[in-house]
Each structure stands twice: as C-alpha cells, then as structure tokens.
Amino acid sequence: MTQPLSIVVLGLSLSSSWGNGHATTYRSLLKASAARGHHILFLERDVPWYAKARDLVDPEFCRLEFYRNLTELEAHRDAIARADAVVVGSYVPEGRAVAAYVLAQARGIKVFYDIDTPVTVAALERDACDYLPRDLVPLFDLYLSFTGGPILERLAREFGSPRPRALYCCVDPDSYKPRQYGPRWDLSYLGTFSPDRQPALEQLLIEPARRAPDLRFAVAGPQYPDTIEWPVNVERFEHVGPADHAEFYGVSRFTLNVTRADMVRAGWSPSVRLFEAAATGTPILSDLWEGLDAFFEPERDILVVDGAEKVLSVLRDQTDERRRRIGANARARVMAKHTAAHRARELETFLVRTRPTTEPSFGSAL
What we know:
By secondary structure, the chain is of the alpha/beta class. The chain has helices spanning 22-35, 48-51, 70-73, 77-82, 95-105, 117-125, 150-157, 198-211, 245-250, 261-266, 272-279, 308-317, 320-337, 340-353; strands at 6-11, 39-45, 63-67, 85-89, 109-114, 142-145, 164-166, 185-190, 217-220, 234-237, 252-257, 284-286, 303-304. The chain is built from 14 helices and 13 strands. The strands form two sheets. The chain has a seven-stranded parallel β-sheet, sandwiched between helices. A six-stranded parallel β-sheet has the order 10-9-8-11-12-13, with helices on both faces. Helix 6 (117-125) links the parallel strand 5 and strand 6. Helix 1 packs across helix 14, helix 8 (198-211) crosses helix 12 (308-317) and helix 11 (272-279) packs across helix 13 (320-337). It is globular, with a radius of gyration of 21 Å. The model is unreliable at 360-365 (pLDDT under 50).
C-alpha cells in the first residue's frame, strides 16, 4: 500500500440513494479507500430532490460537505488545490462549469469518473454532454470508466483522453450478504425507471407476470409513470434503500438484471445492482450484452433470458438445488474480483501510477 492520499470527490450524490445508483457506488468505493488509509472529502451539490430523501448524512469514512451553487464551491478552493487527487463524477449538476473549475484549480491528479460512460460518449459525439465538454476530456490526467472493452480505445482515439481506464462498479460485502429468508417472490427487479430499459422490463417481467398469475413478482424503484398497467401479481415499491437491498434480494427466488440500451450497445457495462444481487447469493436472470461472460459465466453463474417464455421456463423448471448453486457461483465470482476492496486497490494503483500535470505534495491535509 502507498502512503495515504488526500482525495476530493465531486459527485452526483453520496447522501441520497433515491433514484440513482451513484450513491451506493461511491459509498462502497470510498469506504474501502478510507480503510486503506486515504483521506477523502466528498462535495455534493445541495439539490432539493436529494435533500428530502437523504439516507446518509454523516459518513464515517469521509467528510461530506454540501454546496448550493458554484459560488459556494469557492469555499473549497484550497482543498481542491492541495489534494493529491481530485475526482469529478458524471451527472454532477452544472458539471461543465465544475469540471472547468477543478481543472483550473487542482494541482494534483485530475480525474473524471464516469459511471455512465456509454451515455456520456454518445453525448460527447454531439458535443452535447451536460456535465462534460468534449474539449476538456484531454485535460483530465485519468478517465475512469465503469464501462470497459472497446469504448476505452474510443475515449483515447476520438476524444483525446490520455489515460482511459476501466474502474467497474463494485459491492460492499459487509452490506450485501446472503440472507436466509423464505421466498416471497419468484422474480424481483430493483431499479429506477428508464424509458430505454422499460421495453426489456416489459418483456422479461411484466409479460411473464401476465402469463403466470400463480407466480409472484416485485418491482422496486422510483419514477415509474402511472400509465404502466401492472399485473395484480406484481408488488410495487417506490423506493428500497440500500440498507434493505440484501433483504429484498433475499426473499426473491430469482432477481432480474436489465441493462440500459446504451450500455447494451457498448457492452462491458456491469451495473452496481448486478454485483450487489450476486453478492447476496440470489440467482440472477439477465439480458445479454457483449462482455457479460467476462464477469459471470452463463448457465453456471447467471442465466441469460431473451423473452417471456425463457423467463417462465426458468421460474418453473429450475430445481432449488441448481438455483442455489447458481447463486453461490455468482457470489464466489464477486467475492474473488468485484468487491469494494478490489476497486479501492485498483483506484489507488491508477492514482499512484499517474503523473499529475502539477506535482502535489502527497498526503497533504484537506
């Protein structure tokens, strides 16, 4: 392990997991990084939709500060300037201005952390990304992407990133452990509504529910429109907080992974929910995308489904023994390669091997 680093992170949200997967990603990664001795300041834009739904206000693993506007961000100028590394995340409000500010002030390693890489790249092609101007991409010393594979080459070749690196999502194994509950649902799904994900959810959960009124289903997540006609055997939850995720998966015979269209096209985009569900030992049904087999072996660790018939075949025909074995295999994969501790070591390695545009004094206080 290297000597402790001072790290400033400007991300979408750490305090609220409502309607986003960023919070749980940051929490697990930063908790594991703090356990390795690093000192972390997280700066979060104080916005009303997260302020009224905060489920973490005083993290033990980092300092959390809020700023209401770009003027208030100025209060953290010294911390940004003196940090060994400053990380700007995707979807930060007024992200273009925030990115420009960090690049102007930071003397340490300047990092862009993209938890939405295929969406970002599609917007960068049009120079229409709300949180990252195309001309600033080459100025970040390091571009960390939750998507791997060919998109990393594109970031270097087409957008001039000097160091695009995959930093996949991860899971905190302390929070996502197998739970021994009786099954409440045959198939569950946890995720915020997304228009480009909804057709797959219709095909892989809602239609099976219509065809099998004797089976039980659940969908948890906010922002689903009132126009959706849910079958009576689909139980709906507006929000399930991270503290209850393991129990939600634990009462599911199977859980469903549905991938956004941009991520399917890019491939190599495992979601944080995929790793979290696997860590609980709950067997997963998933849509197919390139690179999936680099994380889980189909038919051994995960079951790929392409329609309602396949889903119902799995729900009705899989024995409990095979179901438990698939869940255990997926959990073993995650524990071997995809925990927060793994990602924290990877992040540390990337930072230590990256030369900042201006040399900082490592270990400086925030």
